[in-house]
Specification:
The complex is a heterodimer. Chain A is built from 19 helices and 31 strands. Chain A is α+β, with helices and mostly antiparallel strands. Chain A folds into three domains: 9-182 and 191-196, 2-Layer Sandwich (Aldehyde Oxidoreductase, domain 4), CATH 3.30.365; 208-286 and 345-420, Aldehyde oxidase/xanthine dehydrogenase, molybdopterin binding domain (Aldehyde Oxidoreductase, domain 4), CATH 3.30.365.10; 302-336 and 433-539 and 551-720, Aldehyde oxidase/xanthine dehydrogenase, molybdopterin binding domain (Aldehyde Oxidoreductase, domain 4). In chain A, the strands form eight sheets. In chain A, strands 11-12-9-19-16-17-18 form a seven-stranded mixed sheet. Chain B is α+β, with helices and mostly antiparallel strands. Chain B has two domains: 2-75, Beta-grasp domain (Ubiquitin-like (UB roll), Roll); 77-150, DNA polymerase, domain 1 (Orthogonal Bundle). Chain B is built from five helices and five strands; from the N terminus they run ββαβββαααα. In chain B, α2 packs across α3 and α2 (81-92) crosses α5. The longest helix of chain B is centred in the C-terminal third of the chain and has 14 residues, at 102-115. Classes of the chains: A alpha+beta, B alpha+beta. The structure holds FE2/S2 (inorganic) cluster (2 copies). One FE2/S2 (inorganic) cluster (FES) sits between chains B (96-102, 133-135, 137) and A (60, 342, 392).
């Protein structure tokens, strides 16, 4: 993928005032002026400063540290001397600027090393010209060029002006470092903004302050898809600290600009308090009758059927079930989830002379730009987006509705506005991780081998089309590993908008598939680890080489075996304690988890420790950030499995704050030991694939401890009482 | 109505409603945005500040209740040796992911270390359990508290 990218990109360079140079990476055909007018990727100042631009949104995944590390490595500078600057949103210059799908490392590992190498090559060429020696006789280190023969050296700053006049090298022919010579990449490096974080400096979207700015809240219908029918705003306008209130008619629905009432005030507190004085008649919309209980009841009626949508079909599952020595049948389910990042949705907007400037904590600026342009009827080029650090993303800020709301409200208010969603807004008007139901049946032959697998997936969507983030992919494991498969789907219509949550869809499928596989292992009388090894079979690539969904059985087995060894799989544990194991492949990463859990007499579950092994290729860019991400993913998965559910009743979400939707707390967070298996594959991302193997490892551990099989999340500890 | 406060060691006069929670006085009136809003209902600890050295949830502390109490926020944590050690440990161990909860975590941890310079796991759990970290950096928070304790 990165090779294809390189062919479409050119290095561009030029001079910076004060004797410096800049270097950028532009799509072939992009105007040089445009590349330069925006923040170029690298700047070497005549004053000795070295600036690397971070172009992706920072949501806590550490991208503002890890991507510049790649540039700095090949540029051959000391990390301590580098300054990192956040880019504006501009996909024409920077290409993809999305924090989603764990794709940044996958796509940019090679390209950004070449940016660093390109700048270095120009500086070396400048030194060669300066000294009249061949470039091949020069070396670099710590931001200087050396000519060992004559013991001369110059800092980059002294060469930058000359380098700026030279033609940039062809990106494809640059020579990159041998990874064994890496000085920065592969070393644990603390996040570049950590000192600012720990001293409370303004960094996040919510910290934005503009001169003359007011604060806004936006009250929407309690049911998704609802609209303002009428509103009496007299009382709210008279409330303390309120500067204005108006109806927003809406544009494009809940994914863009819902209908509602905006309140503008001197502080968020004033605006939020004033909501009590609102008198709005809502037209509650088509979703008003929908409830989680209703969806579950309908799904239960489909237990013995197949769905109209064919997802995977291979062999003859019905016939194989017919001749199976043993059949196992079970229904699994999981709820809607909220993303609940700790920083609620917010966006600050200023509209001046028809132009819009946004300060947005976003994972996905360009769709936000489009939606703002459409809702306000202005060209996209009149919108500037400052990507603010996000107080957590988890996929929530791939949604862009709060950007549209802020822009629309600021224009109507006639002053700069910081729109803040209360926690209650955040939880009751989120983009739901779709819940789902799986009616499974599998057949084992006399040797305990899985010969048939049937799954009726009851999901959300319209006809054949899934709701966003609900899709069950045709190659989801164990597809291609069981000869006779029949996976079908039924959609239930859902008014609520859905969205991508960390390891979308996989975060639930891991639980279902690896939970059920554990049941099959026990039905076969096999060790759960050995049963999984046998199911994976010998090391080989299943599927087409180079395809995103091809499955490397060897890599899966390696992480499975590694996690098992780390955890001491097979060791004896006290009564009501157990080990559970699971593995999962998603987002190009292979992960396995082993959970050690104990269950008290009252059913309370305590996780003692989790061991995780992951394979995301041959190089971990920043081991410090990488381990943090995996530990976070695993604990996130435990927290959600143990206590989180969003439920709909009469079209509205019943949970409105953390008291009803608890996150994992310190006292319940076990140590998570992480190891990476380095395999000879291109590095890929790891903000997501560490999640899906943990929920099943937990329920499998609970089964080992109690003999009770948990088939529904969150875990109902009432079922686990002695 | 003007209220006199002692904030981060300085006398400050603020003109705000006495019912207004200290969190919003700090953030929206005084522009001191280091103290964070997460829930507004004493569930998450993101808004933790010190009032006379004790950790309190600023979202549940009306301005009018502060009186002569000394308020310390994350912006002044470095003025105490314990605060400085904690901040250094946080950076050295690369604790933050998104970082949004960390101001509150540090304020809770600073109060803990002042009262209990060598906390064990149970003491850490008890002091820190009111502070959510949605990114779940708990393993590192625990390690950083221990590192700061021996620094
Ligand atoms: S904002 Fe005060 S505890 Fe959450
Ligand atoms: S670091 Fe993100 S909430 Fe704690």
């Amino acid at each position: 993928m990165s090779a294809a990218l390189n062919r479409r990109q050119l290095l561009v360079a030029g001079a910076v005032a004060g004797g410096g140079m800049w270097l950028g990476l532009a799509p072939a055909g992009a105007a040089m002026a445009e590349a330069q007018a925006l923040n170029p990727w690298v700047r070497i100042g005549g004053d000795g400063s070295i600036t690397i631009v971070s172009h992706n949104p920072e949501i806590g995944q550490g991208i503002k540290t890890s991507i510049p590390m790649l540039v700095a490595e090949e540029l051959d500078v000391d990390w301590a001397t580098v300054r990192i600057e956040q880019a504006l949103a501009n996909s024409k210059v920077y290409g993809r600027q999305v924090a989603g799908g764990s794709m940044a490392t996958t796509l940019q590992y090679d390209a950004l090393r070449r940016v660093g190498a390109g700048a270095r090559a120009l500086l070396v060429a400048a030194a060669a010209a300066e000294w009249g020696v061949p470039a091949g006789a020069l070396t670099t280190a710590g931001g200087r060029v050396f000519h060992p023969e004559t013991a001369r050296n110059l800092p980059y700053s002294a060469l930058a002006a000359r380098a700026a006049t030279l033609p940039p090298p062809d990106i494809a022919t640059l020579v990159l470092k041998n990874p064994k010579d890496f000085k920065i990449v592969g070393k644990p490096i603390s996040g570049v903004d950590n000192r600012k974080v720990v001293t409370g400096q303004p960094l996040f979207g919510l910290d934005t302050m503009l001169p003359g700015m007011k604060f806004a809240v936006f009250e929407k219908c309690p049911t998704y898809g609802g609209k303002v029918a009428s509103a009496d705003l007299a009382a709210v306008k008279a409330a303390k600290g309120v500067r204005g209130a108006f109806i927003v008619p809406g544009h494009g629905g809940d994914y863009e600009l819902a209908s509602g009432v905006a309140i503008i005030a001197d502080s968020f507190w004033h605006a939020n308090q004033a909501r009590a004085a609102l008198a709005v008649q809502w037209d509650r919309g088509v979703g008003a009758g929908q409830s989680s209980a209703g969806f579950a009841a309908h799904a239960a009626t489909l237990a013995d059927t197949q769905g109209p949508k064919i997802i995977t079909e291979s062999g003859d599952a019905a016939a194989a079930l017919g001749r199976a020595a043993k059949r196992v049948k079970a229904s699994y389910s999981y709820p809607f989830l909220a993303h609940a990042p700790l920083e609620p949705m917010n966006c600050t907007a200023r509209v001046t002379g028809g132009k819009v400037e946004l300060w947005a904590p976003t994972q996905n600026p360009e769709p936000g730009r489009k939606a703002v342009a459409s809702a306000l009827g202005i060209p996209e080029t009149d919108i500037t987006i400052h990507m603010m650090r996000c107080g957590g993303g988890f996929g929530r800020r791939l949604g862009i509705e709060y950007m549209v709301e802020a822009a629309w409200i600021a224009r109507a208010a006639g002053v700069p506005v910081k729109l803040v969603w209360s926690r209650e807004d955040d939880m009751t008007r989120g983009l739901l991780r779709p819940g789902g139901f799986h009616h499974l049946e599998a057949g084992l032959d006399a040797d305990g081998k899985v010969i048939a697998w049937r799954n009726h997936f009851v999901s959300y969507g319209d006809g054949e089309k899934y709701a966003r983030a609900a899709e069950l992919d045709a190659t989801q494991f164990p597809a291609r590993f069981v000869e006779n498969m029949a996976v079908s789907g039924t959609m239930q219509a859902l008014a609520a908008p859905t969205g991508y949550l960390r390891a979308p869809a996989n975060n639930a499928f891991g639980f279902v598939m690896q939970g059920f596989i554990d049941e099959l292992a026990h039905a076969a009388g096999a060790d759960p680890l050995q049963f999984r090894r046998d199911l994976l079979g010998p090391a080989r690539l299943v599927g087409e080489p180079g395809k995103r969904d091809s499955y490397d059985a060897g890599r899966a087995r390696a992480v499975l075996d590694k996690a098992a060894v780390m955890a001491g799989w097979g060791r004896k544990l006290p009564a009501r304690s157990g080990l559970g194991i699971a593995f999962h492949f998603s987002h190009l990463g292979y992960f396995a988890s082993v959970v050690e859990a104990s269950v008290a007499a009252d059913g309370a579950v305590k996780v003692a420790k989790v061991w995780v092994a992951g394979d995301v290729g041959r190089q971990i860019v920043n081991p410090s950030g990488a381990i943090n991400q995996v530990q976070g993913s695993v604990l996130d998965a435990l927290g959600s499995s143990l206590g989180q559910a969003i439920t709909l009743k009469d079209g509205a979400i019943e949970q409105s704050n953390y008291d009803a939707y608890p996150l994992l707390r310190m006292a319940d967070a076990p140590p998570v030991e992480v190891a990476f298996v380095l395999s000879d594959h291109n590095p890929t991302g790891l903000g997501e694939p560490g999640y899906p193997a943990t929920p099943p490892a937990l329920v499998n551990a609970i089964f080992a401890a109690t003999g009770v099989r948990v088939r529904s999340l969150p875990i109902d500890t009432g079922l686990l009482k002695v | 109505m003007p209220t006199k406060l002692t904030l981060n060691g300085k006398a400050v006069t603020v003109d705000a409603d006495p019912e207004m929670p200290l969190l919003w006085v700090l953030r929206d009136v005084l522009g001191l945005t280091g103290t964070k809003y997460g829930c507004g209902v004493a569930q998450c600890g993101a808004c933790t500040v010190h009032l006379d050295g004790q950790p309190v949830r600023a979202c549940q502390t009306p301005l009018g209740s502060v009186g002569k109490g000394r308020i310390t926020t994350i912006e002044a944590l470095a003025t105490s040796p314990v605060g400085r050690k904690l901040q250094d440990a946080w950076v050295a161990l690369d604790v933050p992911q998104c970082g949004y909860c960390q101001a509150g975590q540090l304020m809770s941890a600073a109060a803990l270390l002042r009262d209990n310079p060598r906390p064990d796991d149970a003491a850490i759990d008890a002091a820190m359990t009111g502070n959510y970290c949605r990114c779940a950096t708990y393993n590192r928070i625990r390690a950083a508290i221990k590192q700061a304790a021996v620094a």
